[in-house]
Amino acid sequence: MGKYIDGFVVPVRTDKLEAYRQFSERAGEVWRDLGALEYIECVGDDVPLGKLTSFPQAVRLEPQETVVFAWIVYPSRAERDRINSAVMQDKRLAGADPTSLPFDRKRMVWGGFEALVSL
Q1: In this predicted model, what pLDDT tens digit does every residue of 31-49 receive, in sequence order?
Q2: How far apart are CA 50 and CA 19, in angstroms?
Q3: What's the longest Cα–Cα distance across the chain?
Q4: Is the alpha carbon torsion for 51, 61, 65, 25 positive or negative?
Q5: What angle do CA 74, 118, 110 make, to 5 degrees?
Q6: pLDDT confidence of residue 33
Q7: What is the pLDDT of residue 12?
Q8: Confidence (pTM)
Q9: CATH topology of domain 4-114
Q10: CA 29, CA 5: separation in Å to the nearest integer?
Q11: Which residues, in sequence order, are CB contacts of 5 under 8 Å at separation 6+?
Q12: Contact 65/14 with Cβ under 8 angstroms?
């Protein structure tokens, strides 16, 4: 198949959603400039609390927060590793104080995935 995807779910305070969108647009530009094929972030609209598992449970969603679900598509795992390394060195994102980010990165759920079906 050849594609590799990083996926993540993160809680974002609703009053910081605009700041998060601005941060994500800048981050998306960096990822795309460095070779990512797609960069997509979606804000929760129909994300029910489950009985056993759910997106809200995965990030321990608190009142006044919403869930953001996102993914980045790469040509391959090797390209993902190269691109992510370059992103961490890119000056457009360098110097961002982790405590000032518009989301709680400690409750972020993420992982890398090899594409199984891509239509």
Answers
A1: 999 999 999 999 999 999 9
A2: 28
A3: 43
A4: negative
A5: 50
A6: 97
A7: 95
A8: 0.90
A9: Alpha-Beta Plaits (3.30.70)
A10: 17
A11: 71, 72, 73, 74, 112, 113, 114, 115
A12: yes
Considering the chain, what percentage of its residues have pLDDT values greater than 70? Answer: 94
What is the Cα 75 distance to its own chain's centre? Answer: 18
Q: What is the DSSP letter of 111?
A: E
Q: At what angle do helices 17-33 and 77-89 cross, to 10 degrees?
A: 120
Measured CA to CA, the distance from residue 92 to residue 57 in angstroms comes to: 33
Length of the chain: 119
Q: For tokens 């998306």, what's the residue?
A: 28
Burial bucket for residue 50 (CB in 10 Å: 0-12, 13-18, 19+): exposed
Integer Cα distance of 64 and 19 in angstroms: 15
Q: What is the distance between the alpha carbons of residues 102 and 94, in angstroms, rounded to a whole number?
A: 16
Domain ranges of the chain: 4-114
Q: Give the Cα-Cα-Cα angle 64, 30, 110 (nearest 5 degrees).
A: 50
How far is the C-alpha of 105 from the C-alpha of 109, rounded, in Å? 9
